[in-house]
Design brief:
HDACs, hydrolase, 430 residues, His_deacetylse_dom, repressor, EC 3.5.1.98, 8-stranded parallel beta sheet, alpha/beta, binds zinc ion
Length: 430
């Protein structure tokens, strides 16, 4: 095990201020709640906190089509009625509404994941966290499932500049379809998604038999599950699959999407994981000791999302967190118990032992077809795609972040190569 991991954490308070609409289940405010809970446990003293750069349109177009990026940049709530055809073409409107500051929201969460990947690439940290990221449904030319820009794909593309093979793991209750699709034909990324499948559950893809095609055949793994899966069943299967995958594939870096809608009691989910069960998966991946990029994802019971990602920040930092939630700006959301952990619920597990066994066997069989790691050799590593110019705007981080992180939060790409000169704030934890 590494003696002490160096953790970079990305947050911009502006990301929590956008509003999808009154009846929309996606509440970006959960990101503010998470951040304040992280601060209340004083976890900011154990990691480096950065405000991410806002991803440039040209960076988003590394995956997305230029016309789609341009449209996202241009459309506003006031003008959307004038672009009815484009709204349909880009799947905007219902699940993916156009709201005030939509594009900036995308730039921030994508910028966080891209910055996280770049810091990992330059070995400035061992683990990078961006809870605002993880929007795994977005497609090259369209929005999907509350996701507009696929930051995970952009982060993986960045990691591929330095790593021959990248492993993507997704524990959101929904299938990680956008990421799988982006890398379906390549063996340089293995995608592994654990999700609810069947009963017309969104997005409807992620069957066990979907394993990738052409060069990518057997480099996509789907673990389709039924309602009510509990900690024991989930973790046992997760451990078996991930250990076998890592042994077989030998990735150079891992991206872990920690969607919290797989928790018990989620407004949209149907699994029965406790926070401990969810976090156990994060711990297992951390203990693989590979460069690790961790993102958020779904999660629609927002006080539980904040709890979950705070606990997982603690897991990544090897920090023990007392169960009683400390005073913080959003303490009222955690009433009446004010406890950090949530247990499983009284839900029937529809995943029988034999069903889970059959999944395990099939995954093993598919992995056997790979036998050993692919012969992808590292070629000349291209430079990071874009080094932005100095921008005054980014020197004015929002007040709340500023109070806690002072001047450490601004990290520019052009500093990545100058060595790390802000070690003074890293506390040695016991
Ligand atoms: Zn989800």
């Amino acid at each position: 095990m590494r003696s002490k991991d160096k953790i970079a954490y990305f947050y911009d308070g502006d990301v929590g201020n956008v509003y999808f609409g009154p009846s929309h289940p996606m509440k970006p405010h959960r990101l503010c709640m998470t951040h304040h809970l992280v601060l209340s446990y004083e976890l900011h003293n154990k990691m480096e906190i950065y405000r991410p750069h806002k991803a440039y349109p040209v960076e988003l177009a590394q995956f997305h089509s230029a016309d789609y990026v341009e449209f996202l940049n241009r459309i506003t709530p006031d003008t959307q009625a004038l672009f009815a055809n484009e709204m349909v073409k880009y799947n905007l409107g219902e699940d993916c509404p156009v709201f005030e500051n939509l594009f900036e929201f995308c730039q921030i969460y994508a910028g966080g994941t891209i910055d996280a990947a770049r810091r990992l690439n330059n070995q400035l940290c061992d683990i990078a966290i961006n809870w605002a990221g993880g929007l795994h449904h977005a497609k090259k030319c369209e929005a999907s499932g509350f996701c507009y820009v696929n930051d995970l794909v952009l982060g993986i593309l960045e990691l591929l500049k330095h790593h021959a093979r990248v492993l993507y793991i997704d524990i959101d209750v929904h299938h990680g379809d956008g990421v799988e699709e982006a890398f379906y034909f390549t063996d340089r990324v293995m995608t592994v998604s654990f999700h609810k499948y069947g009963d017309m559950f969104f997005p409807g893809t992620g069957d066990l038999k979907d394993v990738g095609e052409r060069e990518g055949k057997f480099y996509a793994i789907n673990v389709p599950l039924k309602d009510g899966i509990d900690d024991n069943s989930f973790y046992r299967l997760f451990k078996m699959v991930i250990m076998k995958v890592v042994e077989t594939y030998q990735p150079g870096a891992i991206v872990l999407q920690c969607g919290a809608d797989s928790l018990a009691g989620d407004r949209l989910g149907c699994f029965n994981l406790s926070i401990d069960g969810h976090a156990a998966c994060v711990r297992l991946v951390k203990n693989l000791n590979l460069p690790l990029l961790v993102t958020g994802g779904g999660g629609y019971t927002k006080e539980n999302v904040a709890r979950c990602w705070t606990v997982e920040t603690g897991v990544l930092l090897d920090a023990e967190l007392p169960d009683e939630i400390p005073e913080n700006e959003y303490i009222k959301y955690f009433a009446p118990g004010y406890s950090l952990k949530i247990p499983s619920g009284p839900m029937e597990n529809l995943n029988s032992r034999s069903y889970l066994n059959s999944i395990r066997q099939q995954v093993h069989e598919n992995l056997r077809s790979i036998q050993h790691s692919p012969s992808v050799q590292l070629q000349e590593v291209p430079p990071d795609f874009y080094i932005p110019d100095f921008d005054e705007d980014e020197l004015n981080p929002d007040e709340r972040v500023d109070r806690h992180t002072k001047d450490k939060q601004i990290q520019r790409d052009d500093e990545y190569y100058a060595g790390d000169n802000d070690n003074d704030h890293i506390m040695d934890d016991a």
